């Protein structure tokens, strides 16, 4: 993220581990295509598609070409496709066979000679998490992570980054045995979303909001990531993971930290990430009793989402028939600092819900002295500022207005900003910005070790309390509904309500 106009990235070889996998086809290669189409890839650019077993160059090129046909956000420009595909070569590397990394090294040297890529490399690990540390270790042992003579060696690590605090700390330590922190790019695709980045602009490029962005004026904050998708073919992964691990310490905490952070001194990776980590670090670490009291976990049961008939979560493929894994999680969190003391942050996320909807809603306190008090004015509400992230992207400010006519009656109205109305947007998944930033060495939109660890630390008590409780306290909700009644009760207890997303 930079205020400068984007220029093509420096010469680079993009070494893509897991090149035959789903993530490459759906997101990574289409993002490279979009960068190429926007002329943001350098002339000296090559892709080395790495697999664990022999794949063949022609087959790989065909596969990647096909993935563009399927996942390009708009009709592909065939000349750009062919140019990009012609830069793809293949390599086989298996972390359990160190020799294969030496062969990869030799291949990279040839590519440098052919494409003029000057020894600059990005290694993208689009592989299962168990492979992260062994792959980095093998890269290091083969001398491929050394940054000699000004050459670049960066590693992009996909999600999930750890399974809990201990495993995340272990992974960070293993990566740092081989790499410096500024060589590690931990991806969270939420940071690639324009509207998520826009939270920084909204707060810090306007004089209007920041003075009231604090406990004196804000009643509470709601963060909702509701999805209609169920778990599809991801049963094995999801059943071992659950909604909380899958979404909260990463995606929802990106939103939370951008909303809660103090103004950074500068718009650079260190300043911004330090402030975000500080905000996460201020989340109160709760006791097991508080964790159970301030959370809701639930699983979907059979229902209908639009035209789709959905079965019980426990009957999904690769899910244990007695699974206690949550497909919905809601938490009430406190941030123990001067800005946020006494302002609850309510978070909820779930699969198989009625509508796809991602938003951050900031609810302001009621007017301190209302001259309308005592008059029966139905609907006099406090103001909401809503940052909409999906499916529509925009910002809405809700306030009260008088309805026309002699009677004193009130209506809730809104000032609405829609991205689509103001800007012509490029087709993008958000991965483009992230890949481009890695190529140019800007880690602002990537996660730093301390932020990842602070996130896990905050959710750990919930994970532990839920594990100890087994199926005690696991709520159910109908697929296609707005979630479990228990989530409504979590806010009702505090005299508050979730915003309707159905
Ligand atoms: C992924 C999760 O990281 O994010 C998925 O593993 C989830 O379970 C997805 O569906 C949500 O991303 P988005 O961009 O659709 O909100």
Description:
The chain has about 500 residues and is of the alpha/beta class. The chain folds into two domains: about 10-160, Rossmann fold (3-Layer(aba) Sandwich); about 190-370 and about 385-400 and about 415-425 and about 455-490, Dihydrodipicolinate Reductase, domain 2 (2-Layer Sandwich). The chain is about 35% helix and about 20% strand. The protein has helices spanning about 20-35, 55-70, 80-85, 100-115, 130-140, 165-180, 195-205, 235-240, 240-260, 270-280, 290-295, 420, 430-440, 450-470, 485-490, and strands spanning about 10-15, 45-50, 90, 120-125, 155, 185, 220-225, 295-300, 305, 310, 330-335, 345-350, 355-365, 385-390, 395-400, 410-420, 475-480. The protein has a nine-stranded mixed beta sheet with strand order 16-15-14-13-7-12-11-8-17, sandwiched between helices. Helix 6 (about 165-180) links the parallel strand 5 (about 155) and strand 6. The longest helix has 21 residues, at about 450-470. 6-O-phosphono-beta-D-glucopyranose (BG6) binds near residues 159, 227, 229, 246 and 390.
Show the helix and strand layout.
Blueprint: E1 12-17, H1 22-37, E2 45-51, H2 57-71, H3 78-86, E3 88-92, H4 98-115, E4 121-125, H5 132-141, E5 153-157, H6 165-178, E6 184-186, H7 194-204, E7 218-226, H8 235-239, H9 242-260, H10 269-281, H11 288-293, E8 295-301, E9 303-305, E10 308-310, E11 328-333, E12 345-350, E13 357-364, E14 384-390, E15 394-402, E16 410-418, H12 419-422, H13 431-440, H14 449-469, E17 474-478, H15 485-492
Parallel strand pairs: 1-2, 1-4, 2-3, 4-5, 5-6, 7-12, 8-17
Antiparallel strand pairs: 7-13, 8-11, 9-10, 11-12, 13-14, 14-15, 15-16
This protein binds 6-O-phosphono-beta-D-glucopyranose (BG6).
């Amino acid at each position: 993220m930079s205020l400068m106009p984007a220029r093509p990235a420096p010469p680079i070889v993009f070494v893509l581990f897991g090149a035959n996998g789903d993530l490459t086809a759906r997101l990574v290669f289409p993002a490279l295509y979009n960068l190429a189409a926007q002329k943001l890839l350098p002339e000296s650019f090559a892709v080395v598609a790495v697999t664990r077993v022999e794949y063949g160059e022609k087959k790989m090129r065909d596969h990647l070409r096909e993935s563009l046909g399927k996942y390009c956000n708009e009709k592909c420009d065939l000349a750009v496709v062919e140019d990009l595909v012609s830069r793809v070569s293949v390599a086989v590397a298996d972390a359990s066979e160190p020799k294969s990394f030496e062969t990869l090294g030799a291949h990279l040297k040839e590519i440098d000679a052919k494409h003029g890529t000057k020894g600059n490399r990005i290694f993208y690990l689009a592989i299962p998490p168990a492979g992260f540390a062994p792959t980095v270790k093998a890269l290091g042992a083969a001398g491929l992570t050394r940054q000699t003579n000004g050459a670049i060696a960066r590693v992009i690590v996909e999600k999930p980054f750890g399974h809990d605090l201990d495993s995340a700390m272990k992974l960070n330590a293993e990566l740092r045995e081989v790499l410096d922190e500024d060589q590690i790019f931990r991806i969270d695709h939420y940071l690639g979303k324009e509207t998520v980045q826009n939270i920084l602009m909204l707060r810090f490029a306007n004089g209007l909001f920041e003075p009231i962005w604090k406990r004196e004026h804000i009643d509470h904050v709601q963060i909702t990531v509701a999805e209609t998708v169920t778990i599809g073919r991801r049963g094995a992964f999801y059943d071992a993971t659950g909604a909380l691990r899958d979404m909260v310490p990463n995606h929802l905490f990106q939103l939370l930290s951008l909303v809660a952070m103090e103004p950074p001194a500068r718009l650079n990776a260190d300043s911004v990430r330090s402030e975000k980590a500080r905000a996460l670090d201020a989340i109160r670490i709760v006791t097991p009793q508080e964790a159970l009291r301030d959370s809701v976990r639930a699983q979907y049961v059979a229902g209908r989402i639009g035209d789709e008939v959905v079965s019980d979560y426990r009957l999904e493929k690769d899910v244990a028939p007695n699974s206690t894994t949550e497909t919905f999680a809601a938490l009430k969190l406190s941030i123990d600092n001067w800005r946020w003391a006494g302002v609850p942050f309510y978070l909820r996320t779930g699969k198989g819900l009625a509508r796809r909807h991602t938003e951050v809603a900031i609810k302001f306190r009621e007017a301190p002295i209302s001259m309308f008090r005592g008059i029966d004015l139905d609907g006099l509400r406090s103001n909401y500022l809503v940052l909409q992230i999906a499916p529509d992207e925009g910002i809405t400010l809700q306030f009260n207005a008088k309805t026309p006519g002699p009677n004193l009656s009130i209506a809730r109205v809104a000032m609405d900003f829609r991205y689509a109305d103001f800007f012509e947007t490029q087709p993008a998944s958000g991965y483009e910005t992230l890949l481009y930033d890695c190529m140019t060495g800007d880690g602002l939109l990537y996660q730093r070790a301390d932020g990842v660890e602070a996130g896990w630390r905050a959710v750990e008590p919930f994970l532990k309390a839920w594990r100890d409780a087994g199926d005690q306290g696991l709520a159910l909700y109908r697929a296609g509904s707005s979630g479990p009644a228990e989530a409504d009760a979590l806010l009702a207890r505090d005299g508050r309500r979730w915003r309707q997303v159905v």
